[in-house]
Design brief:
This protein is an alpha/beta fold. The chain has one domain: Alpha-Beta Barrel (TIM Barrel), CATH 3.20.20.330. The chain has an 8-stranded parallel beta sheet. α7 crosses α9 and α9 crosses α10. The chain is globular and about 60 Å long. It starts with 7 loop residues before the first helix and ends with a helix.
Amino acid sequence: MAPAKKSILDRLNSGEVVIGDGGFVFALEKRGYVKAGPWTPEAAVEHPEAVRQLHREFLRAGSNVMQTFTFYASDDKLENRGNYVAEKISGRKVNEAACDIAREVAGEGDALVAGGVSQTPSYLSCKSESEVKTIFRKQLEVFTSKNVDFLIAEYFEHVEEAQWAVQVLKESGKPVAATLCIGPTGDLNGVSPGDCAVKLGKAGADIVGVNCHFDPMTCLKTVKLMKEGLEAAKMKVHLMIQPLAYHTPDCGHQGFIDLPEFPFALEPRVLSRWDVHKYAREAYNLGVRYIGGCCGFEPYHIRAIAEELAPERGFLPQASEKHGSWGSGLDMHTKPWVRARARKEYWEKLSPASGRPFCPSLSHPDSWGVTKGHADLLQQKEATSEEQLKQLFTKQKEKCCV
């Protein structure tokens, strides 16, 4: 019988580096298994081999957490705006399939399974606390029955909803992590990162941090503010960070969803593996020990985290067998000028070109300034009508002209 794996808290309490996985919805959308817009994870049922393969790639790259592909897998999201999944598949089946796949792959290495919940249409539509918690509890029932190792409440724009999620997940008795998709200015109600972290800790979160919406450097600033808030409150909570794999210096309060390139033209903003080396080192130096990625993070990005922190972890991931440290494999290249790039100094100092003549360096984000309670965010079961779309197109034109 194989020895029991160390728990997430045992690993973090001992100072071990825990490496999360990358962005499933974006990676699988590019591969043709997820539809942009709803971003829901029915691929776990419809195309389990695609989800399984991505888990395996992240495991091979160095991840030791297999997060269930249950982002936006709440019942209300699966029936929102004409989505067919709740009726034709069911939220329970999606969550069960995601747990089974994650457990299968986690068993192939020293990885833990984390069941994840995220923000809900019910909260944005101003449903009550009890109604929102009921949504989370349905997913928790599956995670409990599948005996996941720990739980993550991720991708929350409002700390209040994240608190509700943490309170529900704590009913399991398992460790709980909570991450907000916020920047240094705080959540969409203006609650500061430091106060957000304290609220999540008081709600019962064992691990707090940020994920998505912003690039690594912005997320590091936010986590630093969270750390300061926790220290001021004399709270001992582990830190976690899983940023975008896109550069977002021009993003405002609401992050990359305001960028005109979202979601189909973000590729020019993608982090290089060397950007990720820098991110991983700075996260480690800040005291963060749970380090991963979100949208845009592919397995090679996760490998870069594992390679940068190999001295601290004491080993390299399996995927490094085909990757020389800092381009060292290029010493075998045919062309001499490419062989000359087989060194850390070259890649560390490189400023990559975009390849696009006269391209703008930054964008003008679509900052509509709407959040919970605004009429535009009221959710519905019916598909968006043509008339509703026309109203949005008109509003967008008006915003562009301001």
